[in-house]
């Protein structure tokens, strides 16, 4: 069955062009032209992902995303003004899965969407794993911390999975981009850094009171256990 995408942008002409292109690529497309309508439509059943513009009337894309993340992990690809790093960072902090600057190349939009959808729909992600108080089940896309379910976005889940597969080892940023976003990093792209920041906040310290994820400057990130901290 084709994936259904919600395209939320107040530029009606652009929406029509992108809708036509996405439909030619095999997607079903729903449209919303203001933030309030976008939030309402995003909560309707049958959606697989949303393309969400930052600048919209009634509610901004950031307000829509913040409200949506209170009760939904629907994959969201943000459209941001080219060069507007603040909106980009805020979007990722609020739980966007990826972003694309406007004006965007429709081919790149399709590629980013398919990568996000592959991650969100993955059910063959390997065996369950347990690292200290965390239990991660790739098949169910479920994370338990000390026996309690912890809500992560699809991108955060894939990023954590890549780190937990190699506890104590340094995982390069390129490997994390491919695992979590299905693409290589581009220049000045801080997407993975922001997703790691979100993970740190949600996971908190490990049972020994130490940071779970540490930065290895110039290389990537390492998931540390109590054994690593005392080694």
Q: How are the strands ordered across the major sheet? A: 2-1-3-4-5
β-strand number:
12
Q: What's the structural domain tally?
A: 2
Termini distance? 50 Å
Number of helices: 9
| Oligomer kind | single chain
SS content category: alpha/beta
Q: Say which CATH homologous superfamily of the largest domain is assigned.
A: Response regulator
Overview features:
single chain, 231 residues, alpha/beta, Rossmann fold, Arc Repressor Mutant, subunit A, 2 domains, 5-stranded parallel beta sheet, 4-stranded antiparallel beta sheet, 12 strands
Describe this structure in words.
The protein has two domains: 4-121, Response regulator (Rossmann fold, 3-Layer(aba) Sandwich); 157-230, Winged helix-like DNA-binding domain superfamily/Winged helix DNA-binding domain (Arc Repressor Mutant, subunit A, Orthogonal Bundle), CATH 1.10.10.10. The longest helix is centred in the middle third of the chain and has 16 residues, at 106-121. With 231 residues, it is an alpha/beta fold. It has helices at residues 12-24, 35-42, 61-68, 85-93, 106-121, 154-164, 173-181, 191-203, 226-230; strands at residues 4-8, 28-32, 49-53, 76-81, 98-102, 129-131, 134-137, 142-145, 148-149, 170-172, 213-216, 220-223. It has nine helices and twelve strands. Strand 6 and strand 7 form a beta hairpin. The protein is 40% helix and 22% strand. The relative contact order is 0.10. Strands 2-1-3-4-5 form a five-stranded parallel beta sheet, sandwiched between helices.
């Amino acid at each position: 069955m084709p994936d259904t995408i919600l395209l939320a942008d107040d530029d009606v002409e652009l929406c029509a062009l992108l809708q036509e292109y996405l439909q030619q690529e095999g997607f079903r497309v729903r449209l919303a032209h203001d933030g309030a309508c976008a939030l309402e439509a995003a909560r309707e059943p049958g959606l697989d992902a949303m393309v969400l513009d930052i600048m919209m009337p009634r509610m901004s894309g950031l307000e829509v995303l913040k409200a949506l993340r209170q009760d939904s992990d629907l994959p969201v690809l943000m459209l941001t003004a080219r060069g507007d790093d603040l909106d980009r960072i805020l979007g990722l902090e609020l739980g966007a899965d990826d972003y694309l600057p406007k004006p965007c190349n429709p081919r790149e939009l399709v590629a980013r969407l398919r990568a996000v959808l592959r991650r969100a729909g993955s059910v063959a992600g390997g065996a369950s794993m347990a690292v200290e108080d965390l239990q991660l089940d790739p098949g169910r896309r479920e994370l338990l911390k000390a026996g309690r379910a912890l809500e992560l976005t699809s991108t955060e889940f894939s990023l954590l999975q890549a780190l937990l597969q190699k506890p104590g080892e340094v995982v390069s940023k390129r490997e994390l981009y491919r695992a979590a976003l299905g693409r290589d990093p581009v220049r000045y792209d801080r997407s993975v850094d922001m997703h790691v920041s979100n993970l740190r906040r949600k996971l908190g310290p490990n049972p020994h009171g130490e940071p779970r994820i540490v930065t290895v400057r110039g290389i990537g990130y390492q998931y540390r256990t109590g054994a690593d901290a005392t080694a």
